[in-house]
Each structure stands twice: as structure tokens, then as C-alpha cells.
Amino acid sequence: MSVGPAHPVSPTQGGPVELSDPQLTAVLGVLVVLSLAALALAVAALLGQRRVRRAYAVFTGGRHQDVLSLLEHHIEQVATLRQEVAGLRDDTAALREIDRHTLRHTSMVRYDAFEDMGGYLSFSAALLDETADGLVLTAINGRTETRVYAKPIEAGNSRHNLSDEERAAIERALEESGGERETGPKRRRGSRRNDQRRRSSPPAEPVERS
After folding, report:
1. Residue 111 in contact with residue 165, Cβ under 8 Å?
2. Which tens digits make up the pLDDT trace of 116-150?
3. Measuring CA to CA, how many Å separate 9 from each of 5, 6, 12, 15, 61?
4. How many other C-beta atoms can be found within 10 angstroms of the C-beta atom of residue 181?
5. Helix (H) or strand (E) holding 54
6. Rg of the Cα trace of the chain?
7. In the chain, is it the N or the C terminus that has fewer CB atoms within a 10 Å radius of its CB?
8. pLDDT by residue (tens digit) across 106-122?
9. Rounded Cα distance, 103 and 137, in Å
10. Are the beta carbons of 151 and 78 closer than 8 angstroms?
11. Cα distance between residue 177 and residue 134, in whole Å
12. Coarse DSSP helix, strand, coil percentages of the chain, rounded to the nearest 5 percent
């Protein structure tokens, strides 16, 4: 039996591998770069975790609860707020309806009811709401007595007879809120005939007599 020639053993097969100095330097450089990259990733992850914890603390309000419980709590709060808003909406509508019937438009016309009386001590005052409903008050001042009449107003008019001063007060009240106006030297009730007609007119409703 013949034996062939022996093959040389490669230095990479079995046994330690020897590296040259340039190779060691390159390997160390790669390891340093990888270590720095890993450190940077760790720092970034730590900062990100802190931000997440901070956001979670803000979301939970500092309470140690799970997210599901917090969501259920917030849903209940939203439902409660919706009910309160609906109640406020109803209250606002009711207040608007009340405001429509508030006597907010007023006006006064002063005049002399009789020729022998001066100083514009007689007056007609209109008190109306947003729908032109309300009343008009008229005070007729004389030498011996003062009569006050109240007439209901609906839609800017009345089922009772209205004097010129009362109509003027109503028109002014509808045009602007508040005001007082003197008619000047007009003395429309100077005659006894007009005075008797005013006293006998059934629409007038006296509410005060002094």
C-alpha cells in the first residue's frame, strides 16, 4: 500500500488566528463605533420613555390607573357635560322667551291736559315688550284731582280708545327703548266738552285717584 504526498495544513483551519496590527486597529474601531451607536440608541430610548411617562402622567392626572379605567372615567365626564349643556340650552331658551315678554320698551309723553293748568304735569307712558304687548298709563292732572288710567296694549294697539298722546307714547316706545318727550304748549283738553267726553269714555280704566 502506497501513501500519497501529505497536504499542507492551512493556518485558518484549527488553532488561533493571528491578526496584524492594522487589522486589530480596524476591528477595535468598528467595535468602538458600534458601542457609541448602541449608547446613543439607549439614551434616545431613555429620553423617549421619559416623554411617554410625562405624557401619561398628564393624561392620568397623576393618578395611578390603567388607561382603560381612565377612558371610562373621561367618557362618563363627557356624558355628564353633555347633559349639563343640554340643560343650559333649555334654560337659555326659557330666558329668551321671558325676555320677549319683558317690558323693556318704554316712552313717556308729557303735556298739559287743561288750558288753565301748566307745567306739563299730565303724561302718557307706554310700557311694551318685544312683541309690542304691554300697557299704557295716562295721568290727567287737574286743579283738584289727578286721574290715572291704564289701558292694555296688544300688538301695538288697544281695544280701548287711545288718545293722541297715548298713541305717540306707543309709537316712540316701539321706535326706541326709553325716552321722554314734551308736547309743547299744546292744550288739547281745554274745553268742557272734551273734558266731559274724556270722563265718560268707558275704555278708560282708572287705577289710582288722589
Report:
1. yes
2. 878 889 999 999 998 899 999 999 998 888 999 99
3. 13, 9, 9, 11, 72
4. 15
5. helix 21-60
6. 49
7. N
8. 999 999 988 887 888 99
9. 13
10. no
11. 14
12. 45, 20, 35
